[in-house]
Amino acid sequence: MEVKQTKNQTIYLRLAKGESLLPTIQQVCQQLNVTGGYFTGIGACNAATIATYLPDKQDFIDHEFTGMLELVSLTGNISLDHDQQPYLHAHASFSYLDAAQKVVLTGGHLKAATIGYTGEIVITPAGFAIQRQFDDAAGIDVWQLPTD
């Protein structure tokens, strides 16, 4: 991995073949004390797990993909979990060729991805901490934004 932080705090991250996408972003956030913000990225992966949320079951169904996966779009946010560690909530779109050599586009909640060639990620810190707290109505942890 290569990391460069600019004077305005924006972080540029390049991931190498074989690196795990989300744990690497999380590690950089922890090292550079990013407690809130967002990230975007593109690249190429060789494995990914995306999930679809089933509200009636309050659970996810996983979809696993392997092979040449173009990371068409990665977007996510950074907050703090209950242990005050960086928590990433990410969604991604991938394209790949099916058996008939037609392009297929898929996406959803990103649970895991392994870089196949490169990953180019931009992290933009918010400049303040964003906490996550359980919301009874939603049935999941959601942002708890500072009131000041």
UniProtKB/TrEMBL annotation:
Residues 5-146 form the PPC domain. It holds the Pfam family PCC. InterPro entries: PPC_dom. This is PPC domain-containing protein. Transmembrane segments: none annotated.
